């Protein structure tokens, strides 16, 4: 049994030394050192950061994934293990994930002889960029994996709470950017310019008509404009405007429809105002879709290890690049309570470390159920 205090110590080490996506050099070295100290085999991969370890032997193989990256946030929690970097923080709790999965790996190593197959332990870089999982998939390292398990700590649930659903559990996350190119000039002579702020006003209204007028009452989507910029002072007509925001969807057809409507709006406004309106649309992680059978097993095991399980009625509108795995392999992803007054990605995010007590037991028992 892995000592809880050891997991806390590892979590605090990672918390104190956070690294941004794709820069997790020290984090990877620390993970490797801990795994090697416990005789756990690290597999060869071309990954620059992150690593894949393997425990057990045999044909069957399942995987457990933890993400490892931090965020460009200035931490405002005053622990004695506060981030040593003023502008980087483990504000998504990936430090909690690493410690939990390390604990899992050590427990699995201790029962390696009883495992009827192999377990790949994936410490994955760059989750926050939305494509770290795909980079692992593209190495081929999960080609022999028949099921993948993951979790995210969740601050609005108390420690001991476990939330899950089969099917779609997180949304697809896309980013859109509009550039409006007009013609600037003197504020007193609008007839000699082409004011991008007028186009901007129409654009904002048009974007917000998509969910209300193009999406069926039986489908769901969020379209949010997060940033609008134009102009520099009161008596000048600007020559450019910029809008960016995000689209969250649960269904691929709805996702495509919204992208198409945004494109139509760009073209329509270009024609209407004789300005140049261009759209840059970036598809980030798709929706995480939980396998029904794995979800049933996960619920059973979570209850056995003492979680209070609640089956979610609706998916969350957050994104999670675990979808990079679960689009290729049957997967199951759960939300486990970490009880913080502040949400994920907040500078005062402060998860309760008691979450570390049960997560390894959940994974170990689920592995035992699956490797039969
Ligand atoms: Zn995050
Ligand atoms: Zn996260």
Automatic annotation (TrEMBL):
S-adenosyl-L-methionine listed as a keyword: no
Where is each Peptidase M20 dimerisation domain found? 176-267
Instruction: List residues binding Mn(2+).
Output: 92, 94, 128, 152, 345
* Entry-linked SUPFAM superfamilies: Bacterial exopeptidase dimerisation domain, Zn-dependent exopeptidases
Q: Does the keyword Hydrolase apply?
A: yes
Q: Where are the transmembrane segments?
A: none
Q: Describe how the cofactor binds.
A: The Mn(2+) ion enhances activity.
* Keywords tagged on the record: Hydrolase, Manganese, Metal-binding
The cofactors required by this protein are:
Mn(2+)
What GO MF terms are annotated?
hydrolase activity; metal ion binding
Entry's family note: Belongs to the peptidase M20 family.
Matching NCBIfam families, A to Z? amidohydrolases (TIGR01891)
The cross-references to PANTHER family, in alphabetical order and at most eight, read: METALLOPEPTIDASE, PUTATIVE (AFU_ORTHOLOGUE AFUA_6G09600)-RELATED, PEPTIDASE M20 FAMILY MEMBER
Q: What is the protein named? A: M20/M25/M40 family peptidase
């Amino acid at each position: 049994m892995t000592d809880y205090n050891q997991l806390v110590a590892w979590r605090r080490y990672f918390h104190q030394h956070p690294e941004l996506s794709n820069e997790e050099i020290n984090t990877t070295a620390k993970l490797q050192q801990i795994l090697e100290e416990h005789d756990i085999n690290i597999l060869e991969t071309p990954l620059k950061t992150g690593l894949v370890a393997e425990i057990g032997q045999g044909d069957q193989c399942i995987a457990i994934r933890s993400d490892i990256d931090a965020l460009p946030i200035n931490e405002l929690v005053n622990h004695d293990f506060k981030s040593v970097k003023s502008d980087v923080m483990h504000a998504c709790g990936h430090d909690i994930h690493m410690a939990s999965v390390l604990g899992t790996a050590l427990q699995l190593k201790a029962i390696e002889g009883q495992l009827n197959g192999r377990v790949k332990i994936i410490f994955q870089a760059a989750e926050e960029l939305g494509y770290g999982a795909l980079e692992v998939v593209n190495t081929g390292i999960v080609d022999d994996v028949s099921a993948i398990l993951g979790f995210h700590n969740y601050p609005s649930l108390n420690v001991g709470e476990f939330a899950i659903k089969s099917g779609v559990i997180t949304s697809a996350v896309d980013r859109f950017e509009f550039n409006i190119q007009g013609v600037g000039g003197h504020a007193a002579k609008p007839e000699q310019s082409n004011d991008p702020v007028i186009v901007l006003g129409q654009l904002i209204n048009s974007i917000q008509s998509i969910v209300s007028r193009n999406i069926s009452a039986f489908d769901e989507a969020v379209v949010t404009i997060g940033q609008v910029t134009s102009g520099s002072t009161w008596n000048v007509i600007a020559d450019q405007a910029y809008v960016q925001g995000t689209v969250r969807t649960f269904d691929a057809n709805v996702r495509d429809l919204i992208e198409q409507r945004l494109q139509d709006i760009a073209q329509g406004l270009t024609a209407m105002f004789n300005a140049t309106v261009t759209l840059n649309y970036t598809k980030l992680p798709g929706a995480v879709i939980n396998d029904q059978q794995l979800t049933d097993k996960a619920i059973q095991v979570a209850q056995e290890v003492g979680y209070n399980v609640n089956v979610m009625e609706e998916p969350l509108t957050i994104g999670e690049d675990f979808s990079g795995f679960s689009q290729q392999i049957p997967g199951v992803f759960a939300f486990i309570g970490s009880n913080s007054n502040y949400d994920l990605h907040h500078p005062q995010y402060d998860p309760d470390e008691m979450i570390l007590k049960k997560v390894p037991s959940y994974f170990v028992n689920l592995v035992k159920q699956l490797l039969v």
